[in-house]
């Protein structure tokens, strides 16, 4: 007898990039076709910088073709080549890769279990006479302890560059912290320009340095005071950003609603890591990989953000040698973290499907633990 297989349900991915209505994009893009201005800080580029400065309530912003180039530029303009830079291994690869790309040394410090941001005691113990800068990460949009980092940086005369890739939100005060803050506008982020990124700076002189570096070192006076890079955002990216930005209230509201629905059904069953701007929905599970694989078997593609730890990857394993760099919390969370699907178009039916499978597999784990403690057979 031939077994009839049930068709697989529609896949649910960890995110789905928001795009503006196609008719709006098509209509607005006619200006690009008519002007033939495709790059070099054209009208949409200038408009997006202006609108983002107002929306985020920051002094200055410089747009980039992606967040990695923005982070690379930040280290270059602050002259942090060949330096020891303290950062966290609980982040995306780019955070640490750029440190190596400027011939500097990443020094890892641990995170705290509350919000997965840099642990202040571990940071304080890691700073030494060779340290030149700190590169903290605002994980899941949650703010690091910017006041304590500022105090330590001032005391030890250190530069501070915040990886704020997750931190897009209106009037976000934490973006005004440190020497520079970096945003990512990658397709997976809460606000996207297809690819893209930005550096937030605090004075015009620094913005001009950043803008010069992202354009081969050419200054606004057509001088080339130093070598630069090509990292400019093009007009099509900027146009997507302008159109997406006007929809941000609805986008954030929808993500908040999805997050609260998860909270209502999961808060008593699993450990939830907060995400202050609803950019992610991270949970911690003792049987994370079991749940992760079970979801995939059912066409649900959650992600283990961030696993493995950067410090456990081959290019960085030799860095973690000092006693204070054992990273117990980061290693523990990396084994448990799982980010569930979250995006504006996610339906409650789809969320219920995710929740049901998570609880089903997690409940089996609880029953097994209870049986083990009570010596009760599950057969």
Please give a structural write-up.
- The protein is an alpha/beta fold.
- It has two domains: about 20-245, Type I PLP-dependent aspartate aminotransferase-like (Major domain) (Aspartate Aminotransferase, domain 2, 3-Layer(aba) Sandwich), CATH 3.40.640.10; about 250-375, Aspartate Aminotransferase, domain 1, CATH 3.90.1150.
- About 40% of the residues lie in helices and about 10% in strands.
- The protein is built from twelve helices and twelve strands.
- It has helices at about 20-35, 45-55, 65-75, 95-100, 120-125, 145-155, 205-215, 235-245, 250-265, 290-295, 330-335, 350-375, and strands at about 10-15, 60-65, 85, 105-110, 130-135, 160-165, 180-185, 195-200, 270, 280-285, 300, 335-340.
- It has a seven-stranded mixed beta sheet with strand order 2-8-7-6-5-3-4, sandwiched between helices. Strands 9-10-12 form a three-stranded antiparallel beta sheet. The chain has a two-stranded parallel sheet with strand order 1-11.
- The longest helix is centred in the last third of the chain and has 27 residues, at about 350-375.
- The protein is globular.
- The two termini are about 30 Å apart.
- The model is unreliable at about 365-379 (pLDDT under 50).
What labels describe this entry?
379 residues, alpha/beta, Aspartate Aminotransferase, domain 2, Aspartate Aminotransferase, domain 1, 2 domains, three-stranded antiparallel sheet, 12 strands, 40% helix, globular
Describe the structure concisely for a colleague:
With 379 residues, the protein is α/β, with parallel strands linked by helices. The chain has helices spanning 22-35, 43-56, 67-77, 93-101, 120-126, 146-156, 204-213, 235-245, 248-266, 288-297, 328-336, 348-374; strands spanning 12-13, 60-64, 84-87, 105-108, 131-135, 159-163, 180-184, 197-201, 271-272, 282-284, 300-301, 337-339.
